[in-house]
Amino acid sequence: MTTRSLLLVRHGQIDANARGRWHGSTDSPLTRTGRRQVVRVAQRIRRDWGDAAAIYSSPMIRCLRTAEAIASALDQPVALDADLREYSIGELEDTTFASLQADHNFFRRIREDRDFAPPGGESINTVALRIVPALRRIYATSDSTQPIVVVSHGAALAIALAALLDADANHWTNYQIDNCSVTELLLEPEPLVAAFNSTEHL
Question: N or C: which end of the chain has fewer CB within 10 A?
């Protein structure tokens, strides 16, 4: 019986994270803190897991740079998967979380309607319907017992965990995931989190 897992890694810090702004489809580079974080998470994975069967990344530059640091530590290539990208909120991109709450009723609207999407953006259900199959597809690419590293985004990974563990993507706010944390997810025989939002390496 296989015991392999997915090591879910959120990208390193970007300026929008530090300033409390939503960057979903908005691309931006790592901050100096983020660049330090990616080195540390790479060292952590090499130390605690030794190797990986594969490394997959969202194509967003913040994820790619994080994945490249891990790839360098493990001497592995990076495979891009567009379905790992972040939850895009369209015309509300780059809005502060405070303004999304106070001025746009965004969090209430998505809580009450999982199919609600801002103009040009996605709904929670849309994100779940691409990222959960992506994780299952990536998991199925290897028969190795070595873990597969998946570098993605905070909201997208939270939605995936809520859908897999709670059968309800709307529970995504229960899964706060920090920059360059590691969450170890097993998909078989049933979805199970062996470690959640591990940040001691930071």
Answer: N
